[in-house]
Write a structure and sequence with these properties.
Blueprint lengths: L3 E8 L7 H12 L5 E9 L4 H6 L3 E4 L14 H14 L4 E4 L5 H11 L3 E5 L5 H6 L7 E4 L2 H9 L7 E3 L6 H5 L4 H7 L7 E6 L8 H11 L6 E6 L7 H10 L6 E5 L5 H5 L3 E4 L8 H8 L4 E4 L2 H6 L6 E4 L4 H12 L2 H18 L2 H17 L8
Parallel strand pairs: 1-2, 1-4, 2-3, 4-5, 5-6, 6-7, 8-9, 8-11, 9-10, 11-12, 12-13
Length: about 375
């Protein structure tokens, strides 16, 4: 059987890890190298370079201009030609774009090279944005949830060209990397204190102000309660969030851990996980929390609605609603037995529905289908 070389295009917009990069790392770590050989192209930034090379993956740098910036339009034809040459020089059979920003340039280069282009759509988007980013030019879109797929269909993209592939994790890796007591000692949190936590970069769409308000309300019924937030402060919002917590009575009870390359020990330090996103295409960190046996409270955005079984593995609440979040939190704080039951059910759901092996089987089947349909490469 032939070994196909697959080019993964990743645009790094910050030195921190987000769900897209973590998911790509998981894919590369489990790719069957008897049939597929990975090459990574970093189209902006080189921060993940060492991570990919540690995985033994060939990695190259090629700056691609952003389609959405008008001043870069004159650079687009040159960028397409450079990418087409790289595709041919490295004998690439298929290109997988890890997020939407590079979709248009890559799709055109792939068409010129006669190979298929797959674009991963990881965020909720209005239908007009699909068109603006020229996502209809890709041979296939991979939607991380049914909700994201529905948005693609509303944008007029044919159903047969949009596949839903849930991201997956290795539950055993989660369970093998717990060191929560060390984290508690590091942040001065007593073993008996109940810790509510979240892991996500500090950006407005993550809705941290609603989470902090909910924790402050819940602390009126459970005094020995602390909140631990793990994520990079990319927009300089941490100071205002800390001030909000202090004003609501959480002084000394709200801790920020900043960006952490390895977040699993921090998840292990938590008793309950909350995801307060205003929008969320999937929510990979929910899988990690559930695999670690944590009951979860999440906003009812696209991804969380498909991950969390409301009332069984966790609770779903409306976005932007700190009162609903607080009520859900208080209900679980008052019922330790239910928290344990939810944690066990969540771990089992990840194992049976969201395992990395299941993701890779679906992804490999998609690759195989496209490679069978592969266009002949133009000569000359």
């Amino acid at each position: 059987m032939a070994v196909h070389r697959i080019l993964y295009v990743h645009r790094s917009s910050s030195p921190t890890y987000g769900g897209a990069l973590v998911d790509l790392r998981n894919i590369l770590s489990r790719l069957d190298r008897r049939h597929c050989e990975a090459v990574v192209l970093l189209s902006r930034g080189n921060e993940p370079l060492s991570m990919f090379r540690t995985l033994g993956v060939e990695t190259t740098l090629l700056g691609l201009p952003a389609l959405r910036k008008g001043k870069s339009l004159p650079l687009l034809p040159w960028a397409v030609l450079r990418l087409q040459r790289l595709i041919r020089a490295k004998h690439i059979s298929l290109v997988h774009v890890n997020d939407v920003d590079d979709a248009a340039i890559v799709a055109v280069a792939c068409r010129l090279a006669g190979i298929p282009c797959v674009v991963h759509v990881r965020s909720e988007m209005a239908p007009n944005k699909f068109r603006k980013l020229r996502l209809q030019w890709a041979d296939r879109l991979i939607a991380v949830s049914r909700g994201v797929r529905d948005q693609a269909l509303l944008a007029g993209i044919a159903p047969e060209r949009v596949a839903t592939v849930y991201s997956g994790i290795d539950p055993e890796r989660v369970n093998a990397n717990g060191d929560g007591q060390r984290i508690r000692r590091e942040y001065g949190i007593a073993p008996e204190t109940i810790v509510v936590g979240s892991v996500a970069n500090i950006v407005p769409v993550k809705g941290y102000e609603f989470l902090i308000r909910a924790v402050a309300t819940a602390r009126q019924t459970t005094d020995d309660l602390a909140c631990l937030i793990v994520g990079a402060d990319e927009r300089g919002l941490q100071v205002s969030l800390q001030e909000l917590g202090d004003s609501l009575g959480l002084r000394g009870r709200l801790r920020f851990a900043g960006f952490q390359e390895t977040t699993l020990p921090y998840l292990d330090a938590m008793d309950l996980f909350m995801l307060s996103s205003i929008e969320e295409g999937f929510g990979l960190v929910l899988l990690e929390a559930m695999a670690g046996g944590k009951p979860v409270i999440a906003t009812a955005a696209s991804g969380p609605c498909e991950i969390v079984e409301d009332g069984r593995t966790g609770l779903l609440v409306p976005p932007r609603d700190p009162d609903a979040m607080a009520k859900a939190l208080v209900d679980l704080l008052r019922d330790p037995k239910r928290r344990v039951q939810m944690g066990r059910a969540g771990r089992e759901r990840v194992r049976t529905v969201f395992g990395l092996d299941s993701q890779m089987a679906n992804l490999t089947a998609l690759y195989d289908q496209l490679l069978r349909e592969r266009r002949p490469i133009p000569r000359g």
